[in-house]
Write a structure and sequence with these properties.
Number of strands: 4
Largest sheet: 2 strands, parallel
Order of helices and strands: HEHHEHEEH
Helix content: 25-40%
Number of helices: 5
Length: 106
Amino acid sequence: MSSSLYQRIYAAVSRIPPGRVVTYGQIASLVGSPRGARLVGWALSSLPAGTTVPWQRVVNREGRITIANLNFPPEAQAALLQNEGVEVQSQRSNYSVNLKKYLWRP
DNA sequence: GGTTTGACCCTAA
DNA sequence: ATTAGGGCCAAAC
């Protein structure tokens, strides 16, 4: 049973239902690394284009979109979420989701 | 191989 | 409320 942490992260993210979001920290806890939130971001950043993993459903603890992929700007992630029925508030170049409403707890 | 760097989070001051 | 620092694991240098 030596699936890498990456694989477990991808599996955990894949479990998020459409129209819901989860924080990086939650994913880290789910895969058994409660303080490894940064690693989750790392794993998602190395996803191939066109992956089936719904990475757009992962936001930070404040519900904010913190993406650092130039090919995929925050507004693109926001659009994906809005497609699933998630309201995304945009104040200036800052996108955020209401966690009280959309946070998914396994 | 050691060091640095992240799509972050927690705790303490 | 805001700031500072440590921690997590893997990749890149």
